[in-house]
Amino acid sequence: MTQTQGYFDPRFESVRELFAQHQTDPQARGSALCVTVGGETVLDLWQGVMDKDNSQVWEQDTLINVFSCTKPLGAVALLQQVEAGRIGLDDRVADVWPEFAQAGKEQITLRQILSHRAGLSAVSEPLDPEALFDWQAMTSAIAAQQPWWTPGEAHGYAPLTYAWLLGEPLRRLTGQMPGDYLRDHLCAPLGMDFHVGVADEDLPRIAHVSRLRNQQGDQYARDLFAAMGDPQGLAWKAFGNPTSLQTSTNKPAWQQAQILSANGTGNARSLARFWQVMAHDGSLGGTQLLDAELVALMRREHSVGMDRTLRCPTRFGLGVMLEQEWQGGSFGMGVNAFGHPGAGGALGFADPDARVGFGYVTNTMGPYVLTDPRAGELSREVYRCLRERD
User: Fold this and answer.
1) DSSP helix, strand, coil percent of the chain (3-state; round to 5)
2) Which uninterrupted H or E stretch holds 67?
3) Is domain 5-73+180-389 annotated with CATH 3.40.50.1820?
4) Exposed, middle or buried, 16 (CB in 10 Å: 0-12/13-18/19+)?
5) pLDDT higher than 90, residue 389
6) What positions does the domain Beta-lactamase-related occupy (predicted)?
7) Where are the domains of the chain?
């Protein structure tokens, strides 16, 4: 395996050592870590290999699918429409998406969707595998879907459907497909190498993703995987309908689709860049993503308790997860941290008190539901270094 490369501030040398130590695991393939403090980069590291045959080294510009780390960017895109006065948080989604007003969804609001309270965590009717890459097929299926519970009365994470629950209102409000909107209004202004729908010329830069073998995760992970064994249950429908969701990660069809909940492709640097702006109330270095009041609202608790989809405790703001006391739900820093994990180990978050932006990615997927222990170890060590410095 290749040695650790990149930059580190000497005050965070112990983080670099821990990151390098992760690569000694026989199953480790490739990973990257980037951390900013007060807008300054203190760690920008990468290591390992990126291809299926373990022969191509991970480069500075290697890209990887960050899965649900994509969701907060979609949430910010919708909140930009709120800031512009095009829609209100408590407006009905059906006001901008009339076909949505059926099957008991007439009164569902944008706020309920952003906070996973709409009862639309999955499509119950079996979908054709190719529907995943067909915008009209997915929006039609979601428009016809009856909520799994009374909207607003409980919360349950929407791992896949969130893409169209956010993306279709965004498309109708802006006239742009969501990946194009993110490119123009988030990624380009921040200089982020991040894509929802990868261009042909960037496909060779994408790392091949594979799962860790013979690992079951913690009890919550085992409970979720057991629940996914019921083909009619919410867990399987949320993560396995259409079935192509489980089999397409390394395929160009997935990489080039615009799936705002799950197929963002970037790197640790792009995640840290996004979250450093969010750590500074939505504005940094002359670039403003979002008004500070909306960032504060984004961070406010909207859902808390046992998650009907994930079967573990979750705590949500608007499009973001909030800090929890249990280790698997913690970002490893302060109580006001907010961000989002991605399937298999990716993690992006902000700690506004410490002014930290954090990004971690790996192409060796772990089995945990929320924060992967590898990312958690690194963030806790960053926090230890910060407190020692103070």
Assistant:
1) 40, 20, 45
2) strand 64-67
3) no
4) buried
5) no
6) 15-370
7) 5-73+180-389
